[in-house]
Backbone:
């Protein structure tokens, strides 16, 4: 018997014998509605996860879907390494070696002082150089560079004006740090009378409470800072004879 | 049981009458899927979703908000190499000890710093802004020409914990490489994270600086080998 002839002769009880068989069902079958509703609800789940990751921070590293060659087996600066005992990929130079072009011959430029062996064995006489080494040219750009470097490395303690009222100093006072020694003012006869080489050496190696900045500031920049300190000192201690004639009447 | 007229009529169709309502429902689902899938892929796989907001817990709870914000210490005091090298160096422990030798030397928060200073073993900071290894970003090339730290790193001077705020995706880099005037400022203001263009006109000063610094044209700036080698 063909389906066609069956359709013509069937009784009503045949309809709705199974789900989806068509016929007299008055309303949608439950599982169709269920899937539609659940689908609509679940589709919000990824969206809410996306929203969360867009609007909140996470302590976990970012999700990395496509790795490509993002992480290559090579070292980037300051990375860790399993090869060396200290765990650093960056190596220190072998002790006692000097890099090409890094022979620091000029006492004046690289150290600011010279050591002369005295009659006594192993005793040295140290003299600081006065004035600037021939490696640097004092001009406006150099002093401007010095100002910029001074603002970066010196102002936290010495303050922009050099009186020693920097933010770190003020913070140390606020915290009542017993170990804190106030930074020296640049505008004292003691510092004014110091040789340029002496100030250079102080920046390089530190003094009393002040840490050494030789590692943070390159040689030339240290000399630029010395030049700027001289300008700063002059700005606070200029004789009236230095004031141009035409400006003098405007001074009070 | 007697068959009614309507039932007789219906029985001629394979699908029941309510199936007619499935058609608009299916159309709705189609439209829904057409908006949902692009939204899901576009938002879900975007660098903004995946990259932004990474704020790892560092071994020391160092606050940039205190040091760079309140105390106003210049970025370059610690990140000394940023103007000369491709890499903006994370400072050695000694830089912390410049001050903390005397300020808050007994604080529990800086215990790992003291330990590092005593043992010489570096603190293992976690890199927050991590580009793919085939990208050769150069800090010095950017900051010495007046692209500020804030353009990529955001207001670090207000961050208790450093958080990535920009997607740092290739298209994000290219946005700026196509229009560098949107990010250029006088080179001496790069570490001033609060800097605003004069008269609020970034385009004007940006174009002037672009001309003055002789910044490459977009064809060079967007060439593959500018960033990839």
Residues:
């Amino acid at each position: 018997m063909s389906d066609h002839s069956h359709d013509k002769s069937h009784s009503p009880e045949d309809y709705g014998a199974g789900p989806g068989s068509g016929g007299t069902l008055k309303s949608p079958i439950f599982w169709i509605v269920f899937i539609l509703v659940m689908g609509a609800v679940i589709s919000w789940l990824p969206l809410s996860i996306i929203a969360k990751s867009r609007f909140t921070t996470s302590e976990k590293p970012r999700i990395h879907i496509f790795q490509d060659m993002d992480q290559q087996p090579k070292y980037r600066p300051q990375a860790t390494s399993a090869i060396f005992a200290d765990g650093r990929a960056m190596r220190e130079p072998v002790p006692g070696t000097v890099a090409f072009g890094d022979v620091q011959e000029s006492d004046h430029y690289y150290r600011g002082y010279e050591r002369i062996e005295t009659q006594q064995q192993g005793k040295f006489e140290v003299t600081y150089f006065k004035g600037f080494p021939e490696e640097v040219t004092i001009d406006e750009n150099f002093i401007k560079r010095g100002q910029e470097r001074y603002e970066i490395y010196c102002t936290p303690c010495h303050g922009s004006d050099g009186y020693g009222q920097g933010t770190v100093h003020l913070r140390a006072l606020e915290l009542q740090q017993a170990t804190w020694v106030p930074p020296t003012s640049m505008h004292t006869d003691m510092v004014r009378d110091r040789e340029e080489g002496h100030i250079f050496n102080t920046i390089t190696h530190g003094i009393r409470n002040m840490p050494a900045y030789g590692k943070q500031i390159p040689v030339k920049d240290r000399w630029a800072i010395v030049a700027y300190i001289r300008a700063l000192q002059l700005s606070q201690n200029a004789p009236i004879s230095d004031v141009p004639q035409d400006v003098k009447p405007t001074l009070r | 049981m007697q068959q009614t007229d309507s039932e007789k009529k219906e029985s001629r169709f394979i699908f029941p009458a309510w199936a007619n309502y499935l058609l608009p429902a299916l159309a709705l689902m189609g439209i829904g899927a057409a908006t949902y899938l692009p939204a899901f892929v576009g938002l879900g796989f975007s660098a903004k979703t995946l990259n932004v907001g990474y704020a790892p817990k560092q071994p020391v709870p160092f606050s940039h908000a205190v040091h760079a914000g309140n105390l106003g210490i210049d970025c370059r005091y610690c990140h000394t190499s940023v103007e000369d090298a491709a890499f903006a160096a994370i400072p050695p422990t000694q830089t912390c000890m410049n001050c903390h030798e005397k300020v808050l030397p007994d604080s529990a928060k800086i215990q790992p710093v003291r330990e590092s200073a005593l043992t010489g073993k570096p603190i293992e900071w976690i890199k927050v802004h991590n580009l793919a290894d085939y990208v050769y970003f150069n800090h010095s090339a950017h900051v010495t020409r007046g692209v500020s730290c804030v353009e990529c790193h955001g207001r670090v001077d207000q961050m208790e914990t450093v958080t990535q705020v920009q997607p740092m995706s290739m298209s994000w880099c290219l946005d700026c490489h196509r229009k560098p005037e949107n990010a250029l400022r006088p080179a001496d203001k790069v570490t001033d994270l609060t800097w605003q263009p004069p008269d609020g006109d970034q385009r004007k000063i940006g174009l002037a600086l672009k001309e003055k610094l002789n910044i490459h044209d977009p064809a060079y700036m967007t060439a593959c080998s500018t960033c990839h080698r």
User: Anything to note?
Assistant: DSSP finds 13 helices and no strands in chain B. Chain B touches chain A through 65 residues (CB under 8 Å). The radius of gyration of chain B is 28 Å.
